[in-house]
Write a structure and sequence with these properties.
The complex is a heterodimer of chains A (290) and B (684). By secondary structure, chain A is mainly alpha-helical. Chain A contains eleven helices and two strands. Chain A is globular. Chain B folds into two domains: 262 residues, ABC transporter involved in vitamin B12 uptake, BtuC; 263 residues, P-loop containing nucleotide triphosphate hydrolases (Rossmann fold, 3-Layer(aba) Sandwich). The longest helix of chain B is centred in the N-terminal third of the chain and has 28 residues. The two termini of chain B are 47 Å apart. Classes of the chains: A mainly alpha (290), B alpha/beta (684). The interface between A and B is large, with 48 and 49 residues. Chain A: One of its GO terms (biological process) is amino acid transport.
């Protein structure tokens, strides 16, 4: 039983990372019905950028700089890959263009930081803390707290600030928002910026417990798809539940079956949820008008 | 037919293009080139390169069916390719089974996996489908890595040289000697490629291909023509998977080594790049695309060659840009960005010692370039510039004779009773009751009008009837085959039970010709399977001939005979509306629903439309007509029902309904100031 709880505890930390990335997917999908297939590269670039800064600034001061970097990166992705595709109403266009940008970013990162995985210095002690018989790494607690805090901040921003309200309005009805004088193009850019910012932040959170490298984001981003689908691409905090389900399912698979298969449950879950309930477990069915 | 405005405006048949002839020339050239290549170039390196191009082309031709024809994005084709390769390789590893059975296994196993993926995944579209297929590809890679007892895990499997023809079995030496034997595999791949081209050609020109294009242009209309979008997407995907499997098995025997990490995400994206860059919906496009993606790494490895290429690209970009400015083309500022980027590429290559490390960046830039500046690919670009290269629509340039009755009335077995019965139908969207428990009966052989102010529930009723919405409660029954419940069935099932419809906002298959649109409606007359289509059996040809004649007679009935070869999007609006009715008639319906057929038509067009609707009724087809033109409704309808806020407020003959105070109130509002004083209002 202790082993089981121990596995659940470490699953929670991984799950929150998925939730944070999936949250980013939701943000852009809400405003523009598009999402960044290169989100994993935004995460990796955030982590690598943080790794370069950390020796000069220390871990904590590096975080706001990474946030700014992620924010700018999101705007670049939106301008180069998404806006032109929205203009020509091409679904194929934005899927391929965001994939292409992701590949370019990954390749550039490999050329700048090298192909080998790097070790990210942990800001907290590596010794595990004992809590009710379960050993938890301080870094894992930081991941959970950080991810939750970030989602909370974005939610508060959306609810309280005028820009956030514009984001919500655009998500509800982009045409009506446009007619009310909201510059919806800029709002879509903003949503991409916030989305990439959350990914970059997730990158520096997760980097100390995994290895850092240009390819670190690919699998994380793919599994965050699964979480976004489970939680529903359009439903607010379903991603937290989805992230927890997936994170725990993975650590359990890794322990009881084989670490080689630990990526499988998420992907299977993705296939199953989409085929049974495409709007996600927490999503609402939308009826298309003819 | 003495139609004034509807009479064909002397539109001659478009000049029969020689595209088919060109296609034949292209095919002959390809065969000659493939046969002659090893005789001219003896280097095994280049022969191997051409083999790989041909193998990739097989997969890309298959991918084009999914991406080009049905318009779906699949990121799982590298996974399917890997399954094909491993099917062949594991057969050899465990049972020492050679190439021929390996190819069959590659096709069969991969097609089975294609079904396994397509059945759940194709219920979703767009980004969802992209994610599912991406997940599928990743799972396949993980399983190949982990199932070591079967796949030999990360070590991979090594294969011996393929023994294509085994002469020792008949105790002979190969007549073409040792040197010729090395080419056997090359010729096998060439044969597979030519066969693939033939199969893809036949499939896309068959009713299956028409269904693929129809479901991309308008999924909803496709379903309402009795062609299940879901089912045909699965067909397309499985055919595509089978070809990916063939390519995979050939690839395994060509490289003679398979390893798990060869079939990853990058390969998938490379395939998609090849399809788009070459040009969708063509046979030559995938060949060009395949050549580009196979040769690109080789070109990039040679920095001198890259610099020369970059120079050429920069020169071409400067010329294109300069021409645009000299001619003052309206898009001259828009193309400035790609021109500058292309020019900048040259100094970048001069500065670098090697671009191999930046291979993926180049490749990503190519995708961006293709997506935004060459969306129709190289072949699409050439077709746009050179009209002779445009593909012939099916049967273009052949003489078309009408045959068979235009209208085949299916009277159902209602007798004198109701043909269609709505009983207590409730349709609820959240808190809104769009239909609040409606009862409605439609008698056979009548024109039943359905009117009401905007938002009264008319279109909702049509959508419930045709299965686009599932009613919250109540039942819909059609008197065919002893009374069939329609509620809860899919749109295509309902369409096949004999309910055809048109749409308020025209939903034609706009890239298809008028004739092809009607042929999609006639899809239900085809009994041939996909194997009939691939083999071109006599049954398939007979069915096509009959359907074509029938389609022509329907077009003649609608007065569109002269426009049969015109693409639907190029027809004037009035003709589009008529074509939509013609397409619905091709379904041989018991019941025809016309949703505002007169909207946006001119007065003479309306007169012709009225005449046509009458003829349809006189042929015995029951019609439900939603219309806002009251003179059309009053002139045509045998019976009229009036809806308001989801309730039926009146029903009866046209005149009686027109006098009904409830109807007047629904349309014009209650006379508040004299409320109560009017005697009609009292019983309202």
């Amino acid at each position: 039983m202790t082993i089981f709880l121990q596995l659940v505890a470490s699953g929670v930390a991984v799950g929150m990372i998925y939730a944070a990335i999936a949250f980013g997917y939701q943000l852009t999908f809400a405003t523009s019905k598009t999402l960044n297939f290169g989100q994993g590269e935004a995460l990796a670039l955030g982590a690598l950028f943080g790794l370069t800064l950390a020796p000069f600034t220390g871990y904590w001061l590096m975080i706001p700089l990474v946030l700014v970097f992620g924010f700018a990166l999101g705007a670049v992705v939106e301008r180069l890959a998404v806006r032109p595709a929205i203009k020509i109403k091409s679904e194929y266009g934005w899927i391929m263009a965001t994939i292409a940008l992701g590949i370019i970013f990954r390749n550039l990162a490999e050329n700048i930081w090298g192909r080998d995985d790097l070790k990210f210095p942990s800001p907290l002690p590596d010794a595990a803390v004992e809590m009710g018989g379960i050993r938890v790494l301080p870094m894992e607690m930081l991941i959970v707290a950080g991810a939750l805090l970030m989602m909370l901040c974005v939610e508060i921003f959306n609810r309280k600030s005028i820009w956030g309200k514009a984001v919500v309005a655009t998500s509800n009805d982009i045409d009506a928002a446009g007619l009310m004088g909201i510059n919806t193009k800029r709002i879509i850019t903003l949503s991409y910026s916030i989305s990439a910012m959350t990914a970059a932040f997730a990158g520096v959170l997760v980097a100390p417990v995994t290895l850092t490298g240009a390819t670190m984001g690919a699998v994380l981003a793919l599994k965050a798809f699964a979480v976004a689908i489970i939680g529903g691409l359009e439903s607010g905090l379903g991603v937290i539940v989805g992230g927890l389900i997936l994170g725990v399912a993975e650590t359990l698979t890794g322990f009881y079956i084989s670490t080689g298969y630990k990526d499988v449950p998420g992907l299977i879950l993705l296939l199953v949820v989409l085929s049974i309930r495409p709007v996600g477990l927490f999503g609402k069915a939308v009826i298309k008008k003819v | 037919m003495a139609h004034s405005a509807l009479a064909p405006a002397a539109a001659a048949h478009p000049p029969a293009t020689n595209a088919r002839g060109l296609g034949l020339i292209g095919a002959v050239l390809l065969v000659v080139a493939l046969v002659a290549f090893p005789l001219v170039v003896t280097s095994t390196y280049y022969i191997h390169l051409l083999t790989v191009i041909a193998i990739y082309a097989i997969l890309i031709l298959g991918l084009d069916i999914v991406v080009g024809y049905t318009g779906q994005v699949s990121l799982g084709h590298a996974g399917l390719f890997g399954i094909g390769a491993y099917a062949a390789a594991t057969l050899f590893l465990h049972f020492k089974i050679g190439i021929w059975l390996g190819l069959l296994a590659g096709i069969g196993v991969t097609a089975a996996f294609g079904v396994l993926l397509a059945v759940p995944a194709l219920r979703v579209t767009g980004p969802y489908l992209a994610m599912v297929t991406l997940a599928f590809g990743t799972i396949i890679q993980i399983f190949i890595n982990e199932l070591t007892p079967i796949t030999n895990g990360p070590l991979g499997i090594t294969l011996p040289p393929a023994r294509v023809l085994d002469f020792s079995l008949i105790g002979m030496q190969a007549p073409w000697g040792a040197a010729g034997r090395k080419l056997e595999f090359y010729y096998l791949v060439c044969a597979a490629l030519l066969l693939t081209i033939l199969v893809v050609n036949r499939v896309v020109r068959s009713p299956f291909g028409r269904a693929f294009e129809a479901l991309r242009d308008s999924p909803i209309a496709c379903d309402c023509m009795g062609v299940s979008v879901y089912r045909y997407k699965v067909y397309a995907f499985v055919v595509s998977a089978a070809l990916a499997g063939l390519a995979g098995a050939l690839f395994a025997w060509s490289e003679r080594y398979v390893a798990p990490n060869s079939y990853g995400f990058e390969l998938t994206v490379l395939f998609l790049l090849a399809v788009t860059m070459g040009g969708r919906k063509s046979r030559s496009g995938p060949l060009i695309g395949s050549a580009i993606i196979v040769m690109m790494p080789n070109i990039l490895a040679d920095i001198e060659l890259v610099r020369i290429m970059a120079g050429l690209i920069a020169a071409a970009a400067v010329i294109v840009g300069a021409l645009a400015f000299i001619r003052k083309q309206p898009n001259r500022y828009a193309i400035l960005v790609p021109v500058v980027l292309c020019v900048l590429f040259l100094p970048a290559t001069l500065a670098l010692q090697s671009v191999t490390d930046f291979r993926l960046t180049v490749f990503g830039l190519m995708i961006l370039f293709v997506v935004y500046y060459l969306p129709d690919g190289i072949v699409g670009f050439l077709r746009q510039k050179i009209p002779a290269l445009r593909p012939a629509h099916t049967a273009e340039g052949r003489d078309l004779a009408a045959g068979g009755a235009a209208l085949i009335a299916q009277r159902g077995d209602a007798g004198g009773d109701a043909l269609l019965k709505f009983e207590q139908v409730l349709m609820q969207f959240g808190g809104l009751k769009a239909l609040a428990g409606i009862d409605l009966t439609v008698k056979p052989g009548t024109i039943h009008g359905l009117i009401g102010p905007n938002g009264s529930g008319k279109s909702t009723m049509m959508n419930v009837l045709t299965g686009i919405y599932k009613p919250t409660a109540g039942s819909v029954t059609l008197a065919v085959a002893g009374g069939r419940r329609l509620d809860g069935r899919t749109p295509s099932e309902i369409a096949l039970s004999g309910v055809a419809r048109t749409f308020q906002n025209v939903q034609l298959f706009h890239e298809m010709t008028a004739l092809e649109n009607v042929l999609v409606g006639l899809h239900h007359t085809f009994r041939g399977t996909i194997f009939d289509a691939i083999l071109g059996t006599p049954r398939r040809r007979r069915e096509e001939r009959e359907a074509r004649a029938r389609a022509m007679s329907i077009l003649d009935f609608m007065g569109l005979g002269a426009l049969a070869q015109e693409e639907a999007r190029n027809l004037p609006y009035g003709k589009q509306r008529l074509l939509e009715i013609g397409r619905a008639l091709a379904l041989d319906p018991v019941l025809l629903l016309l949703d505002e057929p007169a909207a946006g038509l001119t007065a003479p067009d309306i007169a012709d439309l009225v005449a046509i609707i009458r003829k349809i009724r006189d042929a015995g087809i029951t019609v439900i007509l939603i219309e806002h033109h009251m003179d059309v409704v009053m002139g045509l309808c045998d019976r009229v029902s009036v809806l308001d806020f989801g309730h039926k407020i009146a029903e009866g003959g046209a005149r009686a309904v027109q006098q009904d105070p409830k109807v007047i109130e629904a349309y014009l509002g209650a006379p508040d100031d004299m409320g109560g004083s009017s005697p009609e209002h009292a019983h309202a």
